[in-house]
Design a protein that fits this description.
Layout (H helix, E strand, L loop, with lengths): L28 H21 L5 H11 L7 H8 L8 H12 L2 E4 L3 E4 L1 H21 L5 H19 L5
Antiparallel strand pairs: 1-2
Length: 164
């Protein structure tokens, strides 16, 4: 195993939700990032469920809206499946949104938002912005950016070409 690029090596302690600030450097990132992921995802999905929408439906609405040209159904499925709970979830979501009248397919392939779909996307964007404010309460943009940079570096460290 290569030595740490940092100035010191810190021993790994067992996960402890009550760890003091002084002990946080010894805590496992997988535990804390997993806990954060579960809590934030649950918060978002619970709020969306109250208006009969799912988080994957929101992803699809944003993806269909977010480009200079209409994506194909296959492009949407391919791009969003890594985020989904299974390999067939995004295709099912597209079908749900077609049934709901929020999407339509052009030329048997290209996915577009309907007026109702765009209205839903805007409403969901407002909801997610409100929810983000709750999640980010007490956290400056600088702290948030620093946290994401650390996580991004950790991902690169384990997915990169590091030799162990």
């Amino acid at each position: 195993m290569k030595p740490s690029a940092g100035p010191t090596t810190t021993d790994q302690a067992p996960a402890d939700p009550a760890a003091s600030d002084d002990a946080l450097a010894t805590q496992p990132v997988g535990y804390w990032s997993g806990l954060a992921h579960a809590a934030v995802t649950r918060h978002l999905r619970d709020a969306m469920a109250r208006i009969d929408v799912t988080q994957p439906q929101y992803w699809v609405l944003n993806r269909v809206h977010g480009g200079p040209t209409a994506p194909s159904r296959e492009e949407v499925v391919t791009q969003l499946t890594p985020l989904a709970d299974g390999p067939h979830e995004i295709a099912r979501v597209i079908d749900q949104l077609l049934h709901r009248g929020w999407l339509h397919i052009e030329a048997g392939e290209y996915v577009h938002l309907t007026d109702a779909g765009e209205a839903a996307r805007v409403r969901l964007r407002e909801l997610v912005t409100e929810l983000r404010a709750v999640v980010h309460r007490g956290i400056s943009d600088e702290q948030y950016v620093a946290a994401l940079k650390v996580l991004r570096t950790m991902v690169a460290n384990v997915e990169g070409d590091a030799e162990f």
